Amino acid sequence: MKNKILTTFVQVFLLVIWIAIQAIAIASLASVLTGIDYKITLFLTAAVTILYTSMGGLKIDILTDFVQFWIILITFLIMAVIGFNYVGGFSNLLANLPTGHLDPFAFGGVAWFLGAVLLSGWMYLGNTSHWQRIFSAKNQETAKKSFLLSIPFVLILSLIVVFLGLVASIKLSGINPDFAFFYLMTDMLPPVLVGVGFASILAVIMSSVDSLVIGGSTILYKTFFKKHQFTNKKEIFFARLITCLFGFGGFLLAFAVPKIITLSLIVSYLALIFVPPVLAGMYSKRISADASFYSILIPTILLFLLYPILDSNTFLVSSPLGILLILFYDRMFKKKRELTPLEMAGLEE
Q: What fold characterizes domain 2-98+124-273?
C-alpha cells in the first residue's frame, strides 16, 4: 500500500512539472505573439486548456493528438526547408556557429554528457504518460507496432528541432533562450507562415498538456475516488473536478518557477528514478516491496535537496543511488527468515 501511495504522489508531481513546462511554453509563445504580459497569457492559457480537457476527456485528447501531429510534422518540414535556405546551407551554418557551440561537454561537462547518452532513453520507462498510451492500446501487438512506427517520426522531428536551434544561435542574440524558437519563426518565416508556425507550436504544446492532464487526473481518481460507489453523474463530476485541480497545479507551478530548462532537467531526473524499480518489478521476483519503496523515496528526496547545489549533474547522485538500493537493500536490511521447528531440529542434530 505504501508503494502505491508513494508512486502515485511522485508520478503526479512528475506530471505536474511536465504540465508546467508546457504551460510556460504556451504563455511564452502567446506573449511573443500578442505582446501581452506573460502572467496574463499564462492565466488565460490555463483557463482554456483546463476547461476543454476536463470537458472533453480522453476521446477529445486522442482526436486532438492525431490532428495536431500532422500539423506539427508538415509545418516543421516546411520550416526546415526555409531554414536551410535562410542560413545558406549546412557548411555556412557550421562556419558561423559561436565558438564552442558544438562542444558536447559545454552544458554539464563530460559526466553529464555520458550520463545523458547512457540513461536518457530510459526516461520513457519511468513516465506515466507513456504507460497510459500502452494501456490505451487495443492489445499488446498494437502497442508494440505504434511505438516502433513512431521512431522515425521522433527522429525526424528531433533533428529538425536541433537544426532550427543551431539556426537561432547564429541569427539571434541577446534573447531569452526560452523564447528563441518563437523569435526565430517571426524572423525567418513570411507573415503568412508565421501564423501557421505559431499554430503548430500551440498544437505541440496543447497535445502534450491535455495528455498529461488526463493521465494525472486518472491516476488521482483511480487511487482515491474509484472505490466509492458514485452514480454516473457524480463520477463524471468528480473526474472533471480532479482534472481541473490537477491542471491548475501544473499552471501554478509555471507561475512559481517560469524556467523551462530547470523544470525539464528535474522532471527527467525524476523519471529516471523510477527505472530501477520498474525493471525489478518486471524481471525479478526477489526484490522486496521495501527495496522498491526506498529506491524511489530516498533518491527523490536527494534530487530536490541537491539540485540547488549540483544543478544539471544531480542525476549522477540520484540515479546510481536508486540502482544501488534496488540491488543491495534486501541484502543489507532484510530480516532473516525464522526457521521452522523441523529445520531447528535438523540443526540440533
A: Sodium/glucose cotransporter (1.20.1730)
